[in-house]
Design goal:
The chain has 12 helices and 3 strands. It is mainly alpha-helical. The protein has a 3-stranded mixed β-sheet with strand order 2-1-3. The termini are far apart.
Length: about 300
């Protein structure tokens, strides 16, 4: 028999419990968070303001930027508060809420990246039919479908997590509420939760990854058939930024969750988690802006317009 706690408290240790490192961690993560908000909000503003960016590719990019801001905002603000606070506890409701939004935004990012890969596939492999296949209604439907599927998926797993029982104050060796540490801390039977994770849990990551993989196999095969070097470079340049983002995001997630459990390390895994929850969303707008002539052109026009208005 276990003494279950109705309103358990979770002690969030974060990345480090050493007092001398807290100030440095706060400055680093606050800087990365502000860069995330600044970079992604700039992308959204450019996509809305510049008529040259009113295309499906940039419509999806704007949605990706919005997801990145929400994704990091579900984790970093609470993490910053915990760094400054002596009381690093979070309630069960707060933990489940963070878990829900983390899963929702992470899954939405997977779906949006898959949608962007499909968009590039159609643009390169079927350019004559692009405007017919990727029209405005299809774009909205793909984005809305991504959000709905992610919301339902995260709601299911959050409800299942809320059924778990916990005993006393539980220590989470992480900087946010993820499913794995909650399963380890639970005092109740979690076999149904694990069964759901092993069956349905990986679909929001696996299905988009398959779409991305198949799309890029077709894209690469089409680019290889292009005779001119300039044509191959132009075709590849339209999807190179997206490919870098996909490798960075899926690479860290695969390393984190597809390894054998015997190789898990608490300290090492927390560092890897920082990459796909904080670093990758921060770098996405810079990857797209630095490697995209249209985005850089829109940014120059915006600065020139503001300078002209201020004068």
């Amino acid at each position: 028999m276990q003494n279950y706690t109705r309103s358990p408290q979770f002690l969030m240790l974060g990345l480090s419990d050493l007092p001398e490192q807290q100030t440095l961690l706060f400055i680093c993560f606050l800087t990365m968070y502000l860069l995330n908000i600044l970079g992604n909000s700039t992308i959204i503003l450019l996509v809305r303001a510049d008529s040259n960016l009113h295309t499906p590719m940039y419509f999806f990019l704007g949605n990706l930027s919005f997801v990145d801001m929400c994704y990091t905002s579900s984790i970093v603000p609470k993490m910053l508060v915990n760094i400054l606070s002596e009381k690093k506890t979070v309630s069960l409701v707060g933990c489940i809420s963070q878990l829900y939004f983390f899963l929702c935004f992470a899954c939405t990012e997977c779906f949006i990246l898959a949608v962007m890969a499909y968009d590039r596939y159609v643009a390169i492999c079927n350019p004559l039919h692009y405007t017919v296949i990727i029209n405005s209604k299809i774009c909205v439907a793909l984005v809305v479908g991504s959000w709905l599927a992610s919301a339902l998926h995260s709601l299911l797993h959050s409800l299942m997590a809320s059924r778990m029982k916990f005993c006393g104050i539980n220590t989470i060796h992480h900087f946010f509420c993820d499913m794995a540490p909650l399963l380890q801390l639970s005092c109740s039977d979690v076999s149904l939760n694990k069964l759901l994770i092993y069956t349905e849990g990986g679909l929001p990551v696996l299905i988009p990854f398959i779409v991305v993989l198949v799309s890029y196999v077709r894209i690469i095969s089409s680019i290889v058939k292009i005779r001119s070097t300039g044509g191959r470079y132009k075709a590849f340049s339209t999807c190179s930024s997206h490919l870098i983002v996909v490798v960075l995001f899926y690479g860290t997630i695969a390393f984190m969750y597809l390894r054998p459990s015997s190789s898990f390390s608490v300290n090492y895994d927390r560092i890897v988690s920082v990459v796909y929850t904080v670093v990758a969303p921060m770098l996405n707008p810079f990857i797209y802006s630095l490697r995209n002539k249209e985005v850089k052109g829109a940014m120059k026009k915006m600065f020139i317009r503001r300078k002209f208005v201020s004068n």
